[in-house]
Design a protein that fits this description.
The chain has helices spanning 31-44, 61-68, 93-108, 128-138; strands spanning 5-7, 50-52, 83-85, 118-120. It is an alpha/beta fold. Strands 1-2-3-4 form a 4-stranded parallel β-sheet, with no helix packed on it.
């Protein structure tokens, strides 16, 4: 069986080593390890359809970008991803740009997947300009 849904709600990937609920995670994760985790997720979880990182701490803009960018071989990362929840994370313009480019890539290649169909950006730094670009790319 292949992983189709991954919910990492409220995990602490760095910083204090505590989740939002206050339970100990058992240490911290170095930023480079977080990047490696996201790159491995992008490369190895092609069947993933739903991903929630809601309220997870330690996730930075470059991590969202690493997850959504094309892989080095030119293929789409997590190509079946249709439901993405980045609410209350510290993603920003790098992630938003990667998201738009990803969606436009799906629009130009109908064989590569369906693209994001459900997106939650509550509590992020998305502004009106980025929201307009994201919505435009989602509707291609």
């Amino acid at each position: 069986r292949k992983l189709r849904s991954l919910q990492l709600y409220g995990l602490a990937f760095g910083g204090t080593g505590r989740s939002d609920s206050g339970s100990s995670i058992g240490g911290t994760t170095a930023p480079s390890s977080i990047s490696a985790l996201f790159e491995a997720l992008a490369r190895n979880c092609q069947s993933l359809e739903e991903l929630s990182l809601a309220r997870s701490t330690g996730i930075q803009d470059r991590h969202g970008q690493a997850l959504l960018l094309e892989l080095r071989d030119g293929s789409m990362s997590v190509s079946n991803l249709i439901d993405l929840d980045l609410s209350y994370t510290r993603v920003g313009s790098l992630t938003f740009s990667a998201l738009c480019n990803r969606q436009l890539g799906y629009a130009s290649d109908s064989t590569s997947g369906r693209g994001i169909q459900k997106l939650n950006l509550d509590g992020t730094d998305v502004d009106i300009s980025w929201l307009r670009r994201i919505l435009s790319s989602l509707n291609h």
